[in-house]
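thought: fold this chain, then report.
action: predict
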Amino acid sequence: MPMPFIVTCDTLAKSYRRGKVQALRGVSFEVAEGEMFGLIGPDGAGKTTAFRILATLLLPDSGSVAVDGLDVVRQYAEVRRRIGYMPGRFSLYADLTVEENLAFFAATFGTTIAENRHLIEDIYTQIEPFRERRAGKLSGGMKQKLALCCALIHAPRLLLLDEPTTGVDPVSRKEFWEMLAKLRVEYGISVIASTPYMDEAAQCDRIALMQDGAFLTTDTPRGIIGSYKQRLFRVRSGRMHALLADLNEWEGTQTAFSFGEAYHVTLAPGKDEADLRAYLVSKGHADCDVSEAKPEIEDCFMALAQTSEENEPR
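observation:
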């Protein structure tokens, strides 16, 4: 009978500098077989520490993690055969060619490129014209595709992708997520991916929003957005820098942060859109554009992070 969960993580904790830096604070989650699970949060949230523990490269201080029913500490050798790990930084051999890197990783796991080529066919055909080029000379998008091929070449059951699209152009980012979706559908590979890009969260079945080593919430992207209950406003003016300063000075502003070419703003209790407009006009923003906005994942993250900060013991 197949395992209902490919990953089970229970109250995982890890600290650095003799406990002075809490990287993970009792994190718990489960990932179903075939699921795309996202760890979403800024740098320093604890995503990479979680990945390194899942990949058997780092020991937790406490808590437990099982991958495909195997303990990542006691059964690390077998776990490594079942995972494909793509760290945040390019970690292949820069002086080896594309083909040499792929052959090396296949041999490390006792397989060959030919045996599992079907898993990487669509990806490898894009970099095959450069197979004799050294990996260090590839573009960011090509490095990303090669790293994914090397993570897949031994046919893992679980892919661990730590910020795989950071530093990659928007077109390559889109292509990468499309490749992951196809791998899941055609081969049933489970995926845990992290990203600092909130817009990529929609690609996942479920996401955990992380801040300071803890989960703020875990749900589907739609569920998280649906839980956002505040009225949200999109605000612009001809003096954007001054606009932000004025918004932050007003007692009627609850939150204000940059969102694309505008600011997303929530108001304190008792204040409404008319109050906001009147205040901005009084501060010299007669050309201000205020409209109601639909919340996105980033808005939800900001609201949850603020609530978490307010609830922390002083």
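thought: worth noting. Residues 170-187 form the longest helix (18 residues).
final: tokens above.
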